[in-house]
């Protein structure tokens, strides 16, 4: 079926444009921009709403296998569709970890329950223990899109360098977490006056810089393709920019929570604001926003991490880290747009175009021949977030009760409607 979207505000992150126009979809692909409606096409009047490439959310945790009570493929897919996310890049930190072709094939089959696209990262080392590399070649053949031990930082540098060398020979992308494990062990917040006043164990921002410098040194030594999952401190930006200037094959991401929240949001030990890495200072937050604007940080993700009530209703030090974010990623990101810090093409460059390009996916573009994975949204619609209205099984969001702007009107995957606002 041919669908023609007219009177749409087209957000094109590849061209960097934001303009009124039209878009035609046929057989799951974009076939024309700013052309007339084909004869017999279904015409959708967007009413001046924004039409952008669907979000490619890199770093999502789904609870299958092992923690299906926290999130299933179906519930994650429904939350993603409601949030304008058309492609989920799922993490391997499941129970058991996705470290064998058999486990990867299992989750790939299970992902068919979701209304959106799901691709999986696999573990870089067996059990994510940092000692023995996984069967990277077989996992690539089984569909692994990248390799990561997520928040388990390898302490055995020689084992890590061997895995990186082998991954380079196969062209595999590795996703690393920049932390010095000794310094960051047991930390619940960023060290400083606030942590001291609250009596919480903190980690110095230098732990991220030290971990990043080690990883970049290994990248320079091995020639590996490397993506840094989260850069959150000003101290790390110079090292990242220098690595890029040297021509190393390095990109970096950040979570939406570190772009829109700071350490003071923890308040009186509010565990919905506990993250890995912990929230940083306001100065760091503003520097990260500027780094996204400048292209030093390439990707914005939700780092969706579902947790049940029992694991969050604990003393701050003992509570689980992370928050759900598939459905709140876009309205939270639009805070940066409404604050005048990022325009919409720049925002969607980090949400859609850059992650798709880095992962070798055809999504994330408004171009002829590209998959018609689209999100139609009104960036100015205000609402108060109710966490119990989220489609995710878990409701651990820091934005509960927050005033937000930006409503997803419809989400399309391969031209098919997978979500429509009521």
From TrEMBL:
Record-level Gene Ontology MF annotations: allantoinase activity; dihydroorotase activity; metal ion binding
Span of domain Amidohydrolase: 341-419
Entry's Gene Ontology BP terms: purine nucleobase catabolic process; pyrimidine nucleotide biosynthetic process
Keyword Amino-acid biosynthesis: no
Domain Dihydroorotase catalytic positions: 50-234
The UniProt record lists the keyword Cell cycle: no
Key words of the record: Hydrolase, Pyrimidine biosynthesis, Zinc
Entries under Pfam families matching the protein: Amidohydro_3, DHOase
A cellular-component GO term for this protein: cytoplasm
PANTHER family reported in the protein's UniProt record: ALLANTOINASE (PTHR43668)
Protein name: Amidohydrolase family protein
Organism lineage: Bacteria, Pseudomonadati, Pseudomonadota, Alphaproteobacteria, Rhodobacterales
């Amino acid at each position: 079926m041919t669908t023609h979207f007219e009177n749409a505000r087209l957000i094109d992150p590849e061209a960097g444009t934001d303009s009124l126009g039209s878009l035609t979809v046929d057989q799951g692909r974009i076939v024309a921009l700013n052309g007339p409606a084909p004869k017999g096409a279904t015409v959708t009047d967007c009413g001046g709403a924004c039409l952008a490439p669907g979000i490619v959310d890199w770093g999502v945790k789904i609870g299958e296998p092992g923690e299906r009570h926290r999130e299933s493929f179906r519930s994650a897919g429904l939350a993603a569709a409601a949030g304008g996310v058309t492609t989920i890049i799922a993490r391997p930190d499941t129970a058991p970890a996705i470290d064998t072709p058999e486990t990867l094939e299992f989750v790939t089959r299970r992902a068919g329950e979701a209304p959106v696209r799901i691709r999986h990262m696999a573990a870089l080392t067996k059990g994510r223990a940092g000692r023995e590399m996984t069967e990277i070649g077989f996992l690539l053949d089984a569909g692994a899109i990248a390799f990561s031990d997520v928040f388990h930082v390898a302490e055995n540098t020689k084992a890590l360098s061997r895995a990186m060398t082998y991954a380079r020979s196969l062209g595999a992308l590795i996703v690393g977490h920049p932390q010095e494990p000794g310094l960051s062990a047991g930390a619940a917040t960023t060290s400083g006056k606030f942590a001291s006043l609250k009596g919480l164990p903190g980690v110095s921002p230098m732990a991220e810089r030290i971990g990043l410098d080690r990883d970049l040194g290994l990248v320079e030594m091995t020639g590996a393709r490397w993506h840094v999952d989260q850069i959150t401190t000003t101290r790390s930006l110079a090292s990242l920019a220098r690595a890029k200037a040297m021509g190393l094959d390095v990109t970096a991401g950040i979570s939406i929570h570190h772009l829109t929240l700071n350490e003071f949001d923890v308040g009186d030990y509010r565990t919905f604001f506990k993250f890995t890495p912990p929230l940083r200072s306001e100065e760091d937050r503003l520097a990260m926003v500027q780094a996204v604007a400048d292209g030093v940080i390439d990707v914005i993700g939700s780092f969706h991490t579902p947790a049940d009530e029992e694991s969050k209703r604990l003393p701050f030090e003992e509570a689980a880290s992370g928050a759900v974010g598939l459905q709140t990623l876009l309205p939270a990101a639009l805070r940066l747009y409404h604050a005048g810090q990022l325009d919409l093409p720049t925002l969607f460059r980090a949400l859609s175009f850059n992650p798709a390009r880095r992962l070798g996916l055809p999504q994330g573009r408004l171009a002829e021949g590209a998959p018609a994975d689209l999100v139609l949204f009104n960036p100015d619609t205000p609402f108060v977030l109710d966490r119990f209205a989220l489609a995710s099984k878990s409701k651990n969001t820091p934005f509960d009760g927050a005033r937000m702007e930006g409503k997803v009107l419809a989400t399309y995957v391969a031209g098919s409607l997978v979500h429509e606002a009521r």
